[in-house]
Amino acid sequence: MKKNMQPSPKHSLTNGISPTPSPCGRGTFQKVVRRGKSWVRVFVFIWILSFGFSSATYAMGEKPSASPDTKPKYKLEVLKMEVIPATLATSKAKELSDKKILMVIAPKNFHYGEFAKPKAKFEAQGIKVTVASSTDKTAVGMYGKKVKPDINIKNAKAADYDAVVFVGGTGSTVYKNDLNALSLVIEAKKNKKVIGAICLAPVILAKADIVDGKRTTVSSLGKHLMKKAGAICTGNKVEVDGLIVTGSGPDAAEEFAETIVKKL
Questions:
Q1: Dist. CA 248–CA 235, nearest whole Å
Q2: Residues 138, 143, 145, CA angle at the centre, nearest 5°?
Q3: Quick one: angle between helices 112-124 and 253-263, nearest 10?
Q4: Per-residue pLDDT tens for 125-161?
Q5: How far, in Å, CA of 146 to CA of 140, rounded?
């Protein structure tokens, strides 16, 4: 009768090697893992350091070494900024604060946008604005806006101002036959003042006979009178010829004002 043969507890199926790892074996494996992680950290650190150095090299305008035949994929351009001294800006503002502009509006049907926008631009630069009209009463614009003139045009003298500006609108044509307005234009030209007119108002300059051979712009309704006076109508929003500045209409009001400021 065969005895029931069972493996001896002293022997294992692995020829005497215990299947359970010893504490010493586990410790060795953990050390290897820790060392592996350490090398990974070192590699990542070196990679980041190399990337940072390359970025700094490009930022300084230098290129990393490459073969002579290799063309750079990207071109680094350095932006230059011009710094305007505060003293220069202050002196310019102070210079304009001594300037004076006479704005002439029609007693009726002047264009308020062509009046208000340039006036705001002038005053923002510290320029003193005086409003003139052929009436001492409140002037009424095309869309009902009202403005009280500071002075009657018959009492205004171009010599007292740095610029004389005629505001447009359908009512502005009243001045093309007004002797006070025409005299004001002629006096301004004689004293070498800046003369401005926008929309239909340039026809006043035509009647004063100061636009012959001059580059001008005007509302389409006034082109025939301008050309008849010898003016060159360019069709631009704003036109400058010497001390004469003209604008084509309300859309040109701000650019018109800015151009006048530059001429002062």
A1: 7
A2: 35
A3: 40
A4: 999 999 999 999 999 999 999 999 999 999 999 999 9
A5: 5
Greater confidence, 36 or 9?
36
Could you give the percent of the chain with pLDDT greater than 70? 65
Return all residues near 207 (Cβ < 8 A) that are at least 6 apart. Answer: 176, 177, 182, 225, 229
Q: Which H helix or E strand runs over 130?
A: strand 128-133
The Cα 145–Cα 133 span in angstroms is: 15
**Strand 108-110 relative to strand 128-133, pairing:** unpaired
Give the whole-angstrom CA distance, residue 118 versus residue 263.
14
What angle is formed at CA 183 by the lines to CA 240 and CA 143, rounded to 5 degrees? 70
d(CA 56, CA 50): 10
Pick the residue with more confidence: 201 or 88?
201
CA distance linking residue 221 with residue 234, whole number of Å: 14
User: Between residues 222 and 83, which one has the greater pLDDT?
Assistant: 222
- Residue pair 147/107 in contact (Cβ under 8 Å)? The answer is no
Question: Which SS3 state, helix, strand or coil, does residue 248 take?
Answer: coil
Burial of 11: CB neighbours in 10 Å, binned 0-12, 13-18, 19+: exposed
Q: Two tokens at 220?
A: 């389409």
- Alpha-carbon separation of residue 232 from 72, 167, 169, 228 (angstroms): 53, 21, 21, 10
